[in-house]
Hints:
By secondary structure, the protein is an alpha/beta fold. It has helices spanning 6-20, 25-41, 55-68, 82-92, 131-140, 159-165, 182-192, and strands at 72-76, 99-104, 123-128, 147-150, 171-174, 199-202, 222-226. It has a single domain, classed as 3-Layer(aba) Sandwich (Rossmann fold), CATH 3.40.50.150. Strand 4 (147-150), helix 6 (159-165) and strand 5 (171-174) form a beta-alpha-beta unit. The chain starts with 5 loop residues before the first helix and ends in a 9-residue tail after the last strand.
Amino acid sequence: MLRLNPSALSAALGKQLLVDAAHLRPIFEEQLIPLFTRRLLDHSLQRTDSGSIGLGSALTLFLTAHKLEPRIIAEVGTYIGNSAASIALGAGLSGKPVQLITCDIHPCIKKPLAGISMPEGSAAQVIQGSSTQMFHALAEKKARLDMLHLDGRLQANDIPYLRSLLNEETLIALDDCEGDEKGHMNLDLLRRAGLLKQHVFVEPFDHRLFRTWNMETCSKTGLLLPVKLIRYTRQ
């Protein structure tokens, strides 16, 4: 019997995303990289207790969102908005409006999508507060998430809300998925809560994959991929 582990899935998915979307490289380089640079050099946006995602993680989020085309996206951990911009720009390439809500106890930016081209009707909301507050607000609106990015620690109080917000087709991205960092802690919490029965874990893409785009970088972003999105094809 063939067995696929998180590493094998990572190699297969990463290669497919990076090769199939090579034509998107100018968009990533012309819109996102300059945006990241401006924000990182803006001292008014910095916080000493946080760091922004690297290029490998940004590219992972951008390409994954492009492939999935999520319409309703939630994020825990806004900081300076680079991950939000990466996801939204990738998702917006479908031409359909994107709704993104992101939370942070101390967000450093109010308009994370400023500076990128988005379809008409797209919007982003920044909530200054905890993940539980954001999930509660979304649950009150009976939202169903297409994509969730976790760049902060989940809390036990989040789980009851996530049961209604997530479904078998929700893609979940986990930042800091290495060692005993928060990505694996979030993964463990979601597993123990029984929320991942229809998902498989994909390790962060190997740094060698990014050389396809002539980039010497790495990713710390793991993915929880819905099983329904995995297909066998002859070519």
